[in-house]
């Protein structure tokens, strides 16, 4: 049987500040291919070019990736400020309705960083524009200097809900993660369950309550060193299992009744 297909949500990018592209990080592609065991397919994050029915029929699961632009605050009823940073309204227009459709259908997806925030907003939640400006919160942003290894280094503990889906999957109630984000969950959306927190209280792991499919999402970046990291590997493996199960159901022969 062919590998199941995972649609990796791309990001708009300018080459040399001139040539418009849709880009996908190699870390995400490698994690999907080598750890999830799926065929990675880069999806242009623009509803002008792809429709939800086409995507959901073509792909067996979706990876909602990180990205520099943030979800526009108009999507959760707030006005934009300089603290909200840059936006990608085309990606908003694709990912938010796609997430809601996937939840309803039970089709698996995995949210990372911006993708984690998209899942919350899609379900009616809100975001803080800048976590580090809140009293008692740490700076969760990427270190401005250093090597890739230094930028993605493990920086804080995430405490998981005992007996929750993340603790069961990872076999631990505390895990160490990297942290490379500016925004974070302010109020959780309907059916969003916060299953893990950073030491400063920032939500780090969520899922959608009573969803029939895989909906785990994390604020950190498990795609880095996914094949070797003891936290990242089980997440991408479980996502791959969910995607294969969906593909098997989709391709199962229809039994004829007499």
What name does CATH use for the topology?
Rossmann fold
Order of helices and strands: EEEHEHEHEHEHEHEEEEEH
Strand content: 15-25%
The CATH superfamily turns out to be Class I glutamine amidotransferase (GATase) domain
| Overall number of structural domains | 1
- Number of distinct beta strands: 13
Mean residue pLDDT: 94
Poorly predicted ranges (pLDDT <50, ≥5 residues)? none
> Main beta sheet: strand number and arrangement?
9 strands, mixed
Query: What Rg do the Cα atoms give?
Result: 18 Å
Features:
alpha/beta, Rossmann fold, 13 strands
Task: Explain the layout of strands and helices.
Blueprint lengths: L4 E5 L1 E5 L3 E5 L2 H10 L3 E5 L8 H7 L2 E4 L24 H17 L3 E4 L1 H9 L3 E3 L19 H4 L4 E5 L4 H6 L3 E4 L6 E4 L4 E6 L5 E6 L8 E2 L13 H20 L7
Parallel strand pairs: 1-4, 1-5, 5-6, 6-13
Antiparallel strand pairs: 2-3, 7-10, 8-9, 8-11, 11-12, 12-13
Helix pairs in contact: 3-4
């Amino acid at each position: 049987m062919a590998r199941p297909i995972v649609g990796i949500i791309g990001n708009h990018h300018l080459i040399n500040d001139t040539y418009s592209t849709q880009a996908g990080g190699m870390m995400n592609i490698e994690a999907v291919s080598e750890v999830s065991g799926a065929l990675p397919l880069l999806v242009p994050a623009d509803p002008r070019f792809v429709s939800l029915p086409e995507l959901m029929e073509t792909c067996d699961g979706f990876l909602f990736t990180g990205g520099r632009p943030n979800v526009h605050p108009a999507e959760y009823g707030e006005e934009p400020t300089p603290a909200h940073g840059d936006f990608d309204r085309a990606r908003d227009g694709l990912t938010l309705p796609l997430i809601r459709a996937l939840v309803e259908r039970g089709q698996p997806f995995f949210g990372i960083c911006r993708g984690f925030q998209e899942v919350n907003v899609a379900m009616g939640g809100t975001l803080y524009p800048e976590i580090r400006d809140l009293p008692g919160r740490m700076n969760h942003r990427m270190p401005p200097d250093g090597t890739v290894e230094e930028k993605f280094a493990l920086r804080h503990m995430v405490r998981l809900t005992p007996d929750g889906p993340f603790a069961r999957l990872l076999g631990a109630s505390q895990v160490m993660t990297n942290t490379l984000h500016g925004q974070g969950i302010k109020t959780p959306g309907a059916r969003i369950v916060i299953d893990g927190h950073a030491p400063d209280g920032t939500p780090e792991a969520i899922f959608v309550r009573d969803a029939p499919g895989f909906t785990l999402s994390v604020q950190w970046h498990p795609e880095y060193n996914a094949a070797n990291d003891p936290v990242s590997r089980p997440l991408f493996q479980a996502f791959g299992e969910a995607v294969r199960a969906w593909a098997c159901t989709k391709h199962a022969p229809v039994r004829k009744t007499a």
